[in-house]
Amino acid sequence: MNTDQSPAFIDFEASSLDLIASYPIEVGVCLSDGTLHSWLVRPHVIWKDWSDSAERVHGISRAALEQDGTPVREVAQQLNQLLSGPVFCDAWSFDSFWLHRLYRAVNLRPSFQLESISTLLTPQQVQHWSATRQEVIQQLALPVHRAANDALILRETWRRLNGDVEGQTRPAPLANR
Fold first, then answer.
1. Predicted confidence (pLDDT) per residue in 67-76, tens digit
2. Residue 177: how many CA atoms within 13 Å on its side-chain side?
3. Element spanning 133, H or E
4. Torsions phi, psi of 34, nearest 5?
5. Cα(21)–Cα(100) distance, rounded to whole angstroms?
6. Using only C-alpha atoms, what is the Rg of the chain?
7. Tell me, what DSSP letter sits at residue 18?
8. d(Cα 77, Cα 111) in Å, to the nearest integer?
């Protein structure tokens, strides 16, 4: 884990919730110091899945990805430069699938290990997770279902559950987007 008091967190938005055909369309990272990184992912040529209902949730169109997205290889390489050791997510089944899909498309391997936030939590923290997360969302007043925002919400929820109320942060400037 990072040497700072807080680990790094990652979140994905995807073309749909289909765990056979979906793929990552946005990746957001919140580093241990609160710095945010985000990439829209240009769909790989073999990725065809698309869900209009998912688009309504995250607000990212396929046309926007094709026009403004970063190539898959570049996203994977930048993640590898940025991250090492364990990196935590809150939807491990989905996020590990999308991480694998991202790296597999360009025949690379991640330089970090994706772990579930649940491995960091005590049973009492698990009980308070949902309510604390809702408090953080209200306090930060950020739109959810955008990868960098969700990674920050994950970090701030974890910090609050660990007694770091003073350390609550406002969103740091995005390094990529």
1. 999 999 999 9
2. 14
3. helix 123-140
4. 95, -5
5. 12
6. 16
7. -
8. 9
